[in-house]
Each structure stands twice: as structure tokens, then as C-alpha cells.
Design a protein that fits this description.
The protein is of the alpha/beta class. It is about 40% helix and about 30% strand. The strands form 4 sheets. Strands 2-1-3-8-7-6 form a 6-stranded mixed sheet, with helices on both faces. Strands 14-13-15-16-17-18 form a 6-stranded mixed sheet. Helix 3 crosses helix 4.
């Protein structure tokens, strides 16, 4: 089995000042392409420690990806550490010096002398092009491993990994088996509950099941050999078991809802009080949903008075009806104010109006709770668009009360 390692560098990564999204992204990409990581480590800006880790991985792995530390500052030590591990010196790449000067000239700037450091590579290393930044990558053979050194800037790293490193690995290691990833998203179920429900599914050899929990969703991923004809049947079996809590297949919930709104030529209005504009802002990232959003209001997030909270359902329904009529939209979604830990959400449609009062079964921070309420709103719309019961069942939320008024 091919052994693939990744070394992330930098004190800010080691101590959690920034999230190592590069490692997560590469792990997913390589796994799907048949190059699953067998080792992942993080090393701070320490020359000897980084050199030792590079040497160790070169003895125990076939492929090593080193990410970060190729910049022009004093704490960028990766090239020097690689030279120490390989017991060679550093040499300047005149070609890359010229490439950097041209990049600065296009911006009408003079290249700082400190950037010359980015052209100093271990002797004998092969340069890897970076068309969008000043830090070139490089590759070198050390002991049993091919080691690829990459910049830490995510856009530069991803382009280099996909276009230069992955293509080389696919051409070199032809016996690895590419995997297809079939994914769908659930809302309202716990990861343990999903695991228990899917325990009855017996997957063939070569299949793997994975979960990714990212509040408010749990993504279920089925990895199967590429173009396997049975994969979709197994995925459908899992979707049937999880039922209406599967909110979208192969795409996110906003993408699914946006596509449905466009297909049915329906427009949407939002009025958000407790959710504080969360849903309006969320939909801006999805062109179809954004195109069908006629108007969104943020009404402030103060807690309701006892008078306003005396009938949260009625207040939310009235707001939804007014939002729909005032904007001449087909559908309106509303979140009311919070009162005693409870929030009313409502939806007005051509078929009728629904409202429910929601509370959390456990304590959430304000940000997470607003995310959950916005997702309940969007899930109500998704259910109506998909001709499912509008009121869903959620393991993490209580439904205190509900109402439906036919049109």
C-alpha cells in the first residue's frame, strides 16, 4: 500500500491561530483519487525539528507533501530544512528570480530584495511553477520518497497540488484505485443516530462510509470504486433509511432549494428577527437562491416583551403574510423574536401558512442557535417544495407548538 504523508508548517498552524484547511482539503482530494494519507503532522517554525520530520517521512513514506514556509521572511525555513535533511546546499534559481521580477513589473512595483530568498532551492531540486504567487514549489527524491514542497497560501497550494502534483502521482502510480464520493446532507439527526440507523447497511469490499459534522448539517459520504454500478443503489438505501431528514443529495441545502425555486419560477421574501439576517446572507452565496430572493429584512434581535410573546405563532404568521403581500412574492419565511428561549418561525405560501415555535434541547451559543433557526426556516421551504410534511423532526430541537392555516 502506498504510504503518503503530509507535513504542515508554521507556528500559527501548530498553535491553532489559523485552521489548517489545506490539510483537510488535501486529505479529501487524495483519498478520492486513491492516495489516502497515512500520516499527517504539524511542525512549527523550528529548523532542526522540520528537517528531522522531513527526513523521517522520507524513510517511512513513498510520497510526502510539505506545505508552507516558502515565503521571504526569516521564519520561512522549509527550503533550508529540506537542504539539511538531504545534506545538500542551497542554490539560486535564476529562472525563478526572473519570474518574480516579471510578476512585480506587471504590478508596476520593484521586487524587494528579500524575495530572492524564495528562489533559493536545495541543490538538484526540481522547480514547481506557481503562476499566481511568488513562492515556487519544488520536488526532490530523498531516500524512498518523492517529496513535494508547496506554498501555504490556499489558492496557490490547491492549484499546485491539482495541476502539478496530483497529475504526476496519477501517471506514476497507476495501480491505485480512484474512488467516487457520493454525498448527501442531513439535518435534524445526530451523528450517532445516523450511525445506528445505517448499521444495517452491509457495504461490499472497497466501499467506505464517512461522516462530516458541520453544524447544522451532518454530511454522509459513501466512497466507492470509480464508476461502480452499485454505488447509487447503496446510497439510495441509506437515504431511504434516513427518510425526510435527508435535505439534499450531491449538493448543499441552499443549492437544492435555489434550483427548485428556479425550476418552479417562485420568488422568496425573508423577514428575520432572531436569526438576524443569517438566512438572507447565507443565500447570497448561491446564484439560484439569490436570483429568486425578492427582498430580505433584518428586524433586530432584541428579546420580545411579554405582550409580543403572548402569541408567538400568531405574530410570526402575521409577519409572514405581510412580507409575502408587501413584496408580491410567492413565498415568505420569517423568524420572530426570542422569548424565554423560544423562537417562532413561519412560512407563507400559495397553499397556506405554517408556523412553529422552536426551542433547543441543549444550550447553544448565539451564533449556532441563529444558524439552527435559519436552517429550520429553509428546511420548511425545502419540505414544501419537495411535497413533504412541512414540520420536520429534529433530535436537537423541541417543537413547543405549531399551526397551519389553509389558504
Amino acid at each position: 500500500m502506498l504510504q503518503v504523508a503530509m507535513i504542515s508548517t508554521g507556528e500559527e498552524v501548530l498553535h491553532g491561530d489559523i485552521v489548517d484547511t489545506n490539510a483537510a482539503w488535501l486529505s479529501r482530494l487524495f483519498f478520492e483519487r486513491g492516495f489516502a494519507l497515512s500520516r499527517r503532522t504539524t511542525v512549527g517554525d523550528q529548523l532542526e525539528g522540520l528537517a528531522a520530520e522531513i527526513e523521517h517521512c522520507s524513510l517511512t513514506s513513498d510520497v510526502v507533501i510539505v506545505n508552507g514556509g516558502l515565503g521571504p521572511t526569516s521564519d520561512d525555513l522549509t527550503a533550508q530544512a529540506a537542504a539539511i535533511a538531504a545534506d545538500v546546499g542551497l542554490e539560486q534559481s535564476d529562472y525563478w528570480v526572473e519570474q518574480m521580477r516579471e510578476k512585480y513589473q506587471k504590478l508596476n512595483l520593484v521586487m524587494p530584495q528579500s524575495n530572492l530568498k524564495q528562489a533559493m532551492l536545495p541543490e538538484g531540486a526540481e522547480l514547481l511553477e506557481n503562476p499566481i504567487g511568488t513562492a515556487c514549489g519544488f520536488a526532490m527524491k530523498l531516500n524512498r520518497a518523492w517529496i513535494f514542497f508547496t506554498p501555504g497560501v490556499p489558492s496557490e497550494f490547491k492549484k499546485m497540488a491539482q495541476e502539478q502534483i496530483l497529475t504526476r502521482l496519477i501517471a506514476t502510480y497507476t495501480e491505485t484505485e480512484k474512488l467516487d464520493c457520493h454525498r448527501f446532507y442531513t439535518f435534524g439527526l445526530s451523528e450517532s443516530g445516523i450511525g445506528d440507523t445505517l448499521a444495517s447497511v452491509s457495504l461490499p469490499k472497497g466501499y467506505e462510509l464517512g461522516y462530516r459534522s458541520s453544524l447544522p448539517f451532518i454530511e454522509v459520504k459513501l466512497f466507492a470504486p470509480a464508476a461502480d454500478t452499485y454505488a447509487l443503489a447503496f446510497q439510495q438505501q441509506m437515504i431511504d433509511l434516513l427518510g425526510e431528514n435527508v435535505v439534499s443529495i450531491g449538493q448543499t441545502l441552499p443549492e437544492h432549494v435555489g434550483a427548485q425555486l428556479v425550476a418552479k419560477q417562485l420568488t422568496l421574501a425573508l423577514a428575520e428577527q432572531y436569526s438576524g439576517g443569517w438566512l438572507t446572507n447565507w443565500l447570497q452565496d448561491y446564484p439560484n437562491a439569490k436570483a429568486q430572493l425578492r427582498q430580505g429584512w433584518m428586524l433586530g434581535t432584541v428579546e420580545a416583551t411579554e405582550l409580543a410573546a403572548s402569541d408567538q405563532l400568531a405574530s410570526a404568521l402575521a409577519m409572514a403574510t405581510a412580507s409575502r403581500e408587501n413584496t408580491t412574492s410567492d413565498i415568505a419565511l420569517v423568524s420572530g423574536p426570542i422569548y424565554d428561549g423560544k423562537v417562532a418561525v413561519a412560512m407563507a405560501t400559495p397553499d397556506g401558512d405554517w408556523a412553529q415555535v422552536i426551542s433547543a434541547k441543549r444550550q447553544y451559543g448565539s451564533r449556532d442557535m441563529r444558524s439552527l433557526i435559519a436552517t429550520v426556516m429553509l428546511d420548511m421551504l425545502r419540505r414544501w417544495l419537495d411535497a413533504q410534511p412541512v414540520m420536520g423532526q429534529f433530535s436537537s430541537l423541541n417543537r413547543e407548538s405549531e399551526i397551519f392555516l389553509t389558504s
